[in-house]
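Re-run with default settings, no changes from the original entry. Doing this only to confirm the output is reproducible before filing.
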Amino acid sequence: MATLPGGNYDDIITGTNGSDFIDGGNGDDILTGGNGADTVLGGDGRDALFGGNGDDLLMGGNGADVLDGGNGNDVLDGGDGDDYLSGGNGDDMLIGGRGKDVLDGGKGDDVLMGGDGDDILKGGEGDDVLMGGGHNDYLDGGKGDDVLMGGTGDDFLKGGEGDDFLDGGAGNDILDGGAGNDILVGGAGNDIFVFSGGGGQDVVLDFRAGEDVLQIERNINGLEINDASDLAARVTDMGGNAMIDLGNGDSIMLKGVSAEEVHNNPNDFFVIH
């Protein structure tokens, strides 16, 4: 393994075709691992780290850094600062750390952890796991069967295509499963569950009338839906759970909520958008 140290200045270091250890040290560095399983450390400063081919470890350190894993199954850790992390191809792990970070998993089955700060997490293609952590985060699963967990804070969770699991966690969250048959958990707080045409057959596990609300697209799937009573008329009982028929094969099941509750107080359940 080649060891390539940087120093206290703004360095440009490119690794070999083998497995390299690159430490940028202080300064605003540009560090490229090249081929092989590389370890690249940014250190202090605003650094740009590129893993290249191979299963790489990239650690940004202090400062607002850019980390690009490239091909391979990579681990990217932004550290302190407002960082941008891109996993590229492969099954990657992206850790934002402190700061307002942007994490893009790219292709592959990735794990994204925002950490502290108001973060943006994008799973991309593949079956991904996204964890927002603290503060107010935006999570977008993209294509694939994804797991999204907002954590604490007022988060926006968007499942995208595929059969997804969304858990808002603590805080006043917005959950949009998107296309596919999704399972939604709001968690503590006043949560909004968003549904539009083509959303599939979704299940809400913890709806609390008077706290949470279902935001339904006006005239969804060509139905004449203009107010809460129009939706309540489409609610039936299924095993003690309220089943809402949204037409065109789309539906919402509210686990633990009776159809009678919805019929009696539709305005406690629905908002037309």
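The longest strand covers residues 241-247. The CA atoms of residues 83 and 101 lie 5 Å apart.
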